[in-house]
Design brief:
Layout: H1 2-9, H2 11-31, H3 35-38, H4 47-70, H5 72-85, H6 89-118, H7 123-162, H8 164-187
Helix pairs in contact: 1-2, 2-8, 4-7, 5-6, 6-7, 7-8
Length: about 210
């Protein structure tokens, strides 16, 4: 709602913010990372919590890899169908869900047929294998965000060794955008066109909304 109000009441400022957001999106794509990887650092956790998080990440890797391997073919077909069929961002979720339902169901049917008729497994054992496969698939699905975050962190660190100024600029711009959008959403403020490379970032609440004047 705040962004819509800004676009209606101050289209020039909205366009400037939109251009900077699109420019930042191009930088993120060039770096191969998401906006989460460039978000401002959170306060450092205690060593105990960091060790528990690292241990859970390591322990969850094996079942997640097994689940991803079992479901690799239907997942690849789902991604392929999404890229081929979905032409707009609004269609991506629908096509992914529909294609996933079809390909994953077909994958389980094919696996069940192979267990029963190809390898002569008893029905109760085949059912157990299918249940374990589904559980491993759920593990892979739950582990994916954590694995992606770790990969992006390593990738960004490697790029920072070769292009530190580019990574610093991306971090700085991401922080600026977060602050401005947070100001809009929380206080319905105008967005000042401030370049963080040359001008100090304004504090939240620095400029009142036209509705509050």
């Amino acid at each position: 709602r705040a962004l819509e109000d800004l676009e209606r009441e101050d289209p020039e400022t909205f366009r400037r913010l939109e251009r900077r957001a699109l420019a930042q999106e191009r930088i993120r794509r060039a770096l191969g990372v998401s906006d989460r990887a460039l978000a401002p650092r959170r306060p450092r956790r205690s060593p105990a919590r960091a060790a528990i998080s690292a241990a859970m990440t390591a322990l969850g890797a094996l079942p997640a890899i097994a689940g991803a391997t079992i479901h690799a073919l239907p997942a690849a077909l789902t991604d392929l169908a999404t890229r081929r069929i979905a032409t707009t961002s609004a269609q991506v979720a629908f096509v992914r869900i529909a294609a996933g339902a079809i390909f994953f169901a077909a994958g389980y049917v094919a696996l069940g047929w192979a267990l029963l008729f190809r390898w002569g497994m008893r029905p109760e054992m085949a059912a157990g294998v299918l249940a374990v496969s589904a559980l491993l698939g759920a593990c892979a699905l739950a582990y994916t965000p954590r694995a992606r975050a770790w990969m992006e962190r390593w990738r960004l660190g490697w790029i920072a060794l070769r292009h530190p100024s580019l990574v610093r600029r991306a971090h700085r711009e991401e922080e600026w955008l977060e602050r401005r959008v947070a100001a809009l959403l929380e206080y319905a403020l105008e967005v000042a066109d401030v370049d963080p490379a040359y001008t100090p970032v304004l504090e939240l609440g620095a400029r009142p909304s036209p509705l509050q004047r």
